[in-house]
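Reposting from the mailing list since nobody answered there.

I have sequence plus structure tokens for a pair of proteins and want to know whether others read the tokens the same way I do. The first protein:
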Amino acid sequence: MNDLYAVTPLSKPPVCTVQVPGSKSITNRALILAALAQPAIKGPSYSQLENALRSEDTEVMVESLQRLGIAVHTDWESDRITVPCAPVSQWKPHADFFCGNSGTTIRFLTAMLSLGNGSYRLDGVERMRQRPIGDLLEALRALHVNISTELRPDCPPLQLNAAGLHGGVVSIRSDISSQFLSALLMASCYAHKETIIHVPGALVSQPYVQLTIQMMKQWGVDVEEMHDPDLSYRIKLQRYTARTYAIEPDASSASYFWAAAAITGGRVTVPGLADSMQGDAAFRHVLKRMGCTLPDQNTVQGTPLTGIDIDMNAISDTVMTLAVVALFAQGTTTIRNVAHIRHKETDRLAALASELRKTGAIVDEHPDGLTIHPRPLHGAVFDTYNDHRMAMSLALIGLRIPGVQVRNPGCTAKTYPRYWQDLENLRQ
């Protein structure tokens, strides 16, 4: 794509249906579960993932599994991935993995590789080398995994000398990312003995952990949740079973089109999310608090908006979307309890504050959130910090305000390669 993408305001409110691609979060979890799965009795010796997402994040996960010796086959024409059952004993004993800037890939893969027997190195782009993974590493070391870092004590690159996951009792902090806990949960049923995971303190983005547990159950593994008094999880020795698995549409991607309805007074439907497992599907209810109506569980009807004060910890991937919607509301909007998004693809709080101010809005940056004071808006050239969610959110401003341009639009390929095409389809 060109270095700049100009967004032209809509001539009328959209009334349309948008088919967003499959969920990145579900696709990458399903790839891990499928790679660890065993054949069902009298069943096929492979798993098949339907409606899988093709994006940078999922492609680096697929490539990583292939580097491990698992013959994953992709049929992107039909959005299908086939993953053969591959016992841990058949994994390659040595491999290097490049994980790009995919947090799910490097975190889930690190825990999974601890089950093997071999020497593995994991690295990523420069930003990945700044994203903490120390809480997961400490937990794995407590379970007798030999793992070290090369540059900083809590960030990639990682060197893992695997000899199986011991199991037992372990604590893991999850106040920076819930992906550390999800990674350990998915691997623990293949440990040498039963594992109990304590989670002291705060757990951010809890719906993603529930998504992990629900998917593990769908693949045949039960997790017992306890409170004693800290939140804890008991995972007995079990095995995933190969299966055909349909992946939901991506709720985070849906948020942009529900937001488009909110800020333009349109009506947009994103099918397939009425009974979603994904926490971000709740974003439609955030828009309802601001004044929108929900004709059904897949549709948002835009109406005049009112600012709100809201804790967005549970659905923090939609903070950027909400911040843009807040520009068009009457009254201020305060977003709270999302300090952890400073450790994402960029420091999302600082980046949002900087970019939204370009429109004429007044934005107060707090340690854990933002307060947005709407003002008369004007166009701007937005920087995206190579962050897909910054690009997709900021582009929405151009649906109402002329003169909006987005730098590095190609960064949306991380999770939504056809985003710009779907955004333009709102005109139809």
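The second protein, same order (residues first, tokens after):
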Amino acid sequence: AGQKYNSSIVGGAVVMLDAIANRIQANFGASYGTGNTDQTVQYGSLDPSDPTPSTYTNYSTFSAQLKKDASLTASGVSGEITSLSQASTRQLGASLGQPNLTVCQCEYTRWGFWSVKTPDPNLGVFGTWVAGQPALASDMPTTGTASYVGHVIANVGNTTGDVRQAVGNFSNTVDFGARTGNVAVTGLDNTNYRGNVPLVPGSVAFGGNIAGDVGNRNMTLVGGFVRGATSPVGEMGGTVAITGTNYVGGGSFAAAIKR
């Protein structure tokens, strides 16, 4: 998720890590606006013959540069994907006035930032990403409940140019029998969002809208269950898109079963 022309964009992300060769590759697809076609960008490469720079330090710390063809090089386009560790996410929260941010205690799910920069500052994208090891539909429980706790990182602002980062606490109490989750996002740019979000039948996905308590704001969540260390549905991640009166935002969330 991210921002382009001060509007929210969403899309899918695949992040692949090669600890032996010290390489990463990330493929992002994004769509935005009315009448725009989907855009696909690649960062780094697992191919050892590909010169696109990438660095793998450990499972929580990695980065890669935008893979560029001749046209992108000539036009001056650049970009980068970076990961955020749990510690650096806490530091980000503290810098944004949220010292008690409930950072996801995820074992497998990872998150961070991505960017596309052009010579025209009005045409760039700076967004967030989250990626995990997907669960299977057959992994989904049919009874019981579970509470997930984590965080949201987003870019928010008005529709005329003011864009800033914001973080918030995320929780989702899932009733697998009723196929619904009770979601709360609190403290995100001084706004709290709450509501029920249904699980999609026959899949690991969930999505829906929850209302904010400031400025007619509304948040749309699209997410899915991913694997954790002790459960095939032990973690979750996804995107958020926010609209309101002269207000827009986009970001990502990650959460794990409450310990």
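Reply #1 (J.P.):
I read it the same way you do. Residues 1-6, 32-37 have pLDDT under 50 and may be disordered.
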